[in-house]
Design brief:
The protein is mostly beta strands. It is about 5% helix and about 40% strand. The strands form five sheets. Strands 12-24-23-14-21-20-19 form a seven-stranded mixed beta sheet, with no helix packed on it. It has a six-stranded antiparallel beta sheet with strand order 1-11-10-7-3-4. It holds the Pfam family TerD.
């Protein structure tokens, strides 16, 4: 179907591609709540277990068929994307429900909400549905992929829930781990003389997840820049820190004169780094420069993944912090430098996500960069009596002439280290 044509509610179209990208998009602006995409893989209208729910705290299905790829901002629009490899969807799965939830408001406050199905290979638009009539809903099923006679189809749904992501999840059989209001004390009920025998247990389709799904998420802002990891349940295991970015493609005007459009997409190389100070007084840096990748199970208890030059969804730059050793960490500054490919962070759409193994995801976006900055402080993690407090920094720094980005970060945060030139 054509890119300009939008589907009516209830309409369906064939999906001829083997793999698709599901893009949920909306207009950003003051007072617009944050929107998150999710997917539910269903058998007979329900999930088999909590593992069949793909969303920000559980971003990949075990089968590899569905992945939550994350947010993108461009101009005054935002999109959140799911990747669906239809060839890898287990045969027992009949439907994949594609939903959105609003955080901090209702969908009546979200302008221009739409869902698009794109061929993952060619990028061609296969289907589009624009939601027109949302009001008080805080969760919305925008569409679904479903099987018909061995082939996949997409249906535009447009059905809302006023009970948010919790209501959406529980409607499809997810058990949710959310704080419940305390019930008022009741007098003890009289015990029956004889309890009826329990019904025979039906064999489960799949083993249920060992712990209920946590739907809570924390978005740090200028107004609310800090969060305690202990309050989010993130006091043990590992915590993954991800930096995701997107650059705008620019076109060289002289390319057209040569009879072809030459896309200039700079080979941008960003490096995620961390300054650390341990409680025993040791200080250092974890970075790709000089192969100082750190270590997870010994000091500094921080490890950097391999170097990524794409900012690609689901990858980006990542480092991991071992929360089992919080007691040995005094403070960490997580920062990013431009190694090559740009003179500043302007036009860079970046999102930082901290995902504790046991606890809610913490995310924030970087502000627009308006200075010639080549180094940006992302987050400051401080040990506060055994609890790690995360503070959104999002500070663009401009190094003085001849001063390295690392040394600039050191001076700003008072680390007091000696620096020598390094390379990678």
């Amino acid at each position: 179907m054509g890119a300009s044509m939008t589907m009516l509610k209830g309409a369906n179209v064939p999906v001829p591609a083997q793999a698709v990208r599901i893009e949920l998009g909306w207009g950003s602006g003051p007072g617009v709540p944050d929107v998150d995409a999710s997917a539910l893989l269903l058998v007979s209208g329900k999930v088999r277990s909590d593992a069949d729910f793909v969303f920000y705290n559980q971003p990949a299905h075990a089968s590899g068929a569905v992945r939550h790829e994350g947010k993108r901002s461009a101009g005054d629009g935002v999109s959140d994307t799911l990747a669906v490899d239809l060839a890898r969807v287990e045969p027992v799965i009949e439907r994949i429900v594609l939903a959105a939830s609003a955080d901090g408001g209702a969908f009546g406050q979200v302008p221009g909400l739409y869902i698009r199905v794109l061929d993952a290979g060619s990028g061609a638009e296969l289907a589009r549905f624009d939601s027109q009539d949302a009001s008080v809903e805080t969760a919305f099923v925008l569409g679904e992929l479903y099987r018909r006679q061995g082939a996949w189809k997409f249906r535009a749904v447009g059905q809302g829930y006023s009970t948010g992501l919790i209501g959406l999840a529980t409607a499809f059989g997810i058990s949710v781990d959310e704080p419940q209001p305390q019930p008022q004390a009741q007098p003890p009920a009289r015990q029956p003389v004889q309890a009826p025998p329990p019904p025979p247990a039906a064999p489960p389709v799949a083993a249920p997840a060992s712990t209920p799904v946590r739907l809570s998420k924390v978005t740090l802002t200028k107004e609310k820049p800090t969060v305690s990891l202990a309050k989010q349940g993130g006091t043990s295991g590992s915590m993954r820190v991800n930096l995701n970015w997107q650059t705008r493609k620019q076109f060289k005007s002289w390319g057209a004169k040569l009879g072809r459009a030459v896309a200039q997409h700079a080979d941008l190389d960003l490096d995620l780094c961390a300054l650390y100070e341990l409680t025993d007084g040791r200080k250092g840096v974890v970075q790709a420069l000089g192969n100082a990748f750190g270590a997870l199970n010994q000091p500094p208890y921080i490890q950097l993944d391999g170097d990524d030059r794409t900012g690609a969804v689901d990858t980006g730059e990542n480092l991991t912090i071992n929360l089992d050793h919080i007691g040995k960490i005094r403070r960490i500054v997580i920062f990013v430098t431009i190694y090559e490919g740009a003179r500043s962070f302007a036009d860079l759409h970046a999102t930082v996500t901290l995902q504790p193994q046991h606890g809610a995801a913490i995310d924030f976006s970087l502000d627009e960069c308006t200075v010639p900055s080549t180094v940006c402080a992302l987050a400051l993690l401080t040990n506060n009596g055994g609890d790690l407090v995360v503070q959104r920094e999002a500070r663009y720094l401009v190094p003085e002439r001849g001063v390295s980005p690392q040394r600039t970060m050191d001076r700003t945060y008072g680390w007091g280290m000696n620096w020598t030139p390094g390379r990678k």
